[in-house]
Amino acid sequence: MTNESLVSSIKGFFSLIRPFTLLAPLTVSFSIMLASFFYQQQTPELLFVILSVILPASISLALLNGASNALNQATDHKADTLSKPYRPIPQGIISVKQGKLIAMVLYGISIVVAGYIHFTFLFFVLAITFFTVTYSLSPRMKDKLFFNQLWIAIPRGFLGILASWSVFSSVFQSVILIIAGIAALFLFGGSITKDIMDSSADKKVGTQTLVNTYGVKKAAFFSFPFLFFPFLLIPAAIDAGLIRVEYWALTFLAIPGVYIFILLMNHHKPSRFFENTSAWAVMYATYFIYAMMFSALSFVASTF
Predict the structure, then answer these.
(1) Closest by Cα among 157, 234, 170, 158 to 39
(2) Quick one: average pLDDT of 152-176?
(3) Which end of the chain is more exposed for a tag (fewer CB within 10 A), N or C?
(4) What digits encode the pLDDT tens for the residues 200-255?
(5) Got the DSSP string for 195-262?
């Protein structure tokens, strides 16, 4: 293999796993694990805990997302040929078989690392694996209207947050069930942002989404309640005594939910920096901020 082909293969690998999207599980899981640590007011040295537990667990979830991305590209190569011909499989840099093999290896590493953490975390990683595999392979939930959104919201929102929290705390605590539930509702609505650029190609290969079934604007109106109202559950949960008052600030994330809706209604072109729309980028950013704010507020709550 020449140096040029080696560089091309390395670039193809990173394009296959889509590093930017790995920031979501890495950032979110790291933040939620810190929140879990603070919430339980753990006493061990924080730096040691980060290096020995939080970092490996976060990497496990990031690799899981990378595996899902690789598998999705391997099974979506026909649609990508139409809408994203610059991706490594349509370009012939990586074959479909190689894409699936890379996905299997990443899944395997993620599961092994999860087993190092503890059984509960491993259980959630296996559950997430089930959803990501069945999203792309038979029964291929990606092709089914509404189920494709649900199959993103459950593993990336609900199960992903519970997995991270389980590293130090019980997943049956009301605070994390509410936080994970809100994340899942938000992602159920926000996941349509990724379908805009693929609308035509998805329709040609038989993938039915809200966007290519009803159009972007109708899809945006359907998704708006999921982008906005979940965050209003925070003050209701505080009033009910289910979560501590320090978390009230998370309510303000309803504002970027409105902004995502506005972008969906008006801006359907790719972002200057990413292969998807601005609405997609803002949706990801909001999810990052949600997790980081929760972590910071958990630290505040633990000190009083």
Answers:
(1) 170
(2) 95
(3) C
(4) 888 888 899 999 999 999 999 999 999 999 999 999 999 999 999 999 999 999 99
(5) GSTTHHHHHHHT---HHHHH-HHHHHHHHHHHHHGGGGHHHHHHHTTSS-GGGGGGGGGHHHHHHHHH
C-alpha–C-alpha distance, residues 260 and 293, integer Å: 19
Q: At what angle do helices 55-75 and 119-136 cross, to 10 degrees?
A: 10
Domains of the chain: 9-302 (1.10.600)
Spatial distance between the Cα atoms of 68 and 32, rounded to a whole number of angstroms: 21
Show the tokens assigned to 130.
Answer: 């089930």
For tokens 């504002």, the residue is 255
Encode pLDDT of 113-142 as tens digits: 999 999 999 999 999 999 999 999 988 999
Both structure tokens of 37: 């640590």
Sole residue written with tokens 């990724």 = 194
